[in-house]
Amino acid sequence: MKVQLLEICHARSGDKGDAANVGLIAREEKFYPLIRSTVTASAVKKHFKGICNGKVERFELPNLWALNFLLHNTLGGGGTVSLKQDAQGKTIAAALLRMEIDVPSALTRKSSKKQTTMKSVIKKK
Amino acid sequence: MKEKIRIASGQGFWGDLPSAPIDQVKLASKQSPIDYMMMDYLAEVTMSIMQKQKLRDPKAGYAKDLVDVIDAILPDIVEKNIKVITNGGGVNPEACRDAIFAVAKKRGIPIRVGVVLGDNILDDIDPIIKAGHPLKNMENGEALTNVRSRVLSANVYFGAMPIVEALRQGAQIVITGRTTDTGLTLAPMIYEFGWDEHDWDKLASGTVAGHILECGAQSSGGNFSADWKSIKDFANIGFPIAEAYPNGEFIITKHPKTGGRVSRQTVAEQLLYEIGDPKEYITPDCVADFTSIHLEDLGKDRVKVFGIKGKPATDFYKVSMSYNDGYSAQGNLTYTWPDAMEKAMVADKILRARLKKSGCTFEEMRTEFLGVNSCHGPLTPVRLDEVQEVVVKFAVRGQDKNSIVEFGKNIAPLILTGPPSVTGFAGGRPKPSDVVAYWPALLRKTAVTPKVIVEETK
């Protein structure tokens, strides 16, 4: 089933010059292999069409159940020069959490209710 | 050697919560002691602002708020023996120290203050280049000569070692200029635990602790994206504290009965903040490997951080320079139902046509619809005909100042010469402000020498 990353991840973003950095962290360890295989650099580049004008780099941090992305040429010239409302890329993390990925139903069934509720998914069904 | 030290974060940027450092000190007790407090005041743009202030007044150019903080906490830090380490000295650490001495004299409390100097290379750029250090832009390789005449500030990022020297000379307060945020936290660990300056794993551990503390409450529940509604008592959010051990392990926590939260998730989010390649977190002190970090949530707002690996420091300091790069201005108008969004878009067309007619030239003109899609752009699932009201933000940037001035004159006229039900224009015409651009470079460590001065109030 399709699940929005917001359901299984949290994230934080900021600026590195004209690039935005987004740290994407699985809410539970069991979701890490899933985001590792599905949230690829090219998938993120496609998701940010019209926002990210450069390449997307991806780095893996398995101990933290996390992926780090660098979205190059994204902030309108960088913090002090940019005319963008979000010149520092602070809300790019939330924008990534909009992305939908395919989640095997086995993984969602086993999900502990307390940690991760699949409310929005169930509602959609 | 102490079996552990506790380092509190008091400020994450210039303009952070004013009560935070005061509360960190006030709440320090036998049950929740504090040995050190670090305060980060400097961002890349900050140095150029401070440099401008110093040009106007040779006694300015540092974070004035810092002096107010010291005034408020001085009796407590002396009584509780808390040492304060901060980069709030900006481009004038000595003037900052003198202001602190004045406060200490007023209160009749003698205090030993150390300053770290030598990072400010603004007046030495030409000799440095002559000596064979080109200071090329490390992002695009451009030569500095292209912007040399417009440089506003130039500072080397020093690491922890000059602060360690100030602590060895008995400073209770250490004021630096452009020191890395992480060095402020690493320094007391090196000093207290006697870490070797080549013990890369331990230096990396202290550096990671510094990264977790350097943005204040961003590791203790602030700006937390997972389940933010479950964070308790934002109003009294506790800033983080690192409880460090001689073997390099540390625990992130906060004072009891404060708001916020320290959990695996809040710490992990901060660890991922503004990093590039996680295996290559480069500081003047070491290269830390963020993929080696292990987190263990101990419960009750305590998270253990351990297993951190480091590599040798590089031979270079990073240099942060800023230079003038033209002008910018922005103006807002608010349009309401009916057809709010359509009106805002028409207003944009009108403005652009008028500026074109006036012969204005810009490097960039950007129009954004605040409250609709200014941040997430094409990812925003919104029906434009359903927008009830919208703030349209017009912004321009360019080298021709007259064009920017003309832009400022053309916002308000839209109210009486364009679509209806428009408001929200106050505060006069948008005026051109200087665009300050950033120039990062590398410099061999042998080219500059930090200078440490420790003195006591007389």
Distance between the termini of chain A: 9 Å
Mean pLDDT of chain B: 96
Oligomeric state? heterodimer
Give the ordered list of helices and strands of chain A. EHEEHHEEHEHH
What number of structural domains do the residues of chain A give?
1
What average pLDDT do the residues of chain A reach?
A: 89
The number of strands of chain A is 6
Question: What sort of overall outline of chain B do the alpha carbons produce when their principal axes are compared?
Answer: globular
Largest interface, with counts of residues having CB < 8 Å to the other chain, equals: A-B, 43 and 52 residues
Low-confidence stretches of chain A: 111-125
Shape descriptor of chain A reads elongated
Which strand-content bin applies to the residues of chain A?
Answer: 25-35%
Radius of gyration of chain A, in angstroms, nearest whole number? 15 Å
Question: Largest sheet of chain B, order of strands side by side?
Answer: 11-12-8-7-1-2-3-6-4-19
| Sequence of strands across the biggest β-sheet of chain A | 2-3-5-4
Name the helicity range of chain A.
Answer: 25-40%
Distance between the termini of chain B: 31 Å
In helices, the fraction of residues of chain B equals: 25-40%
How many β-strand runs of chain B?
19
Describe the structure.
The complex is a heterodimer of chains A (125) and B (458). Chain A is of the alpha+beta class and 125 residues long. Chain A has one domain (2-124). Chain A is 28% helix and 27% strand. Chain A has six helices and six strands. In chain A, the strands form two sheets. A four-stranded antiparallel beta sheet of chain A has the order 2-3-5-4. A two-stranded antiparallel sheet of chain A has the order 1-6. Chain B has two domains: 5-119 and 157-314, no CATH class; 325-437, Alpha-Beta Plaits. Chain B contains twelve helices and 19 strands. Chain B has helices at residues 19-26, 46-56, 64-79, 93-107, 125-130, 161-168, 181-193, 200-213, 264-271, 340-357, 401-409, 414-417; strands at 5-11, 36-39, 83-86, 112-117, 151-156, 173-176, 241-244, 250-253, 281-282, 287-289, 294-299, 302-306, 309-311, 316-336, 364-370, 389-398, 422-423, 433-444, 451-456. In chain B, the strands form three sheets. Chain B has a ten-stranded mixed beta sheet, sandwiched between helices. In chain B, strands 5, 14, 15, 16, 17 and 18 form a six-stranded antiparallel beta sheet that branches. In chain B, strands 9-10-13 form a three-stranded antiparallel beta sheet, with helices on one face. In chain B, a hairpin with a 5-residue loop joins strand 7 (241-244) and strand 8. The longest helix of chain B has 18 residues, at 340-357. Classes of the chains: A alpha+beta (125), B alpha+beta (458). At the A-B interface, strand 2, strand 3, strand 4, strand 5 and helix 4 of A face helix 9, strand 14, strand 15, strand 16 and strand 18 of B.
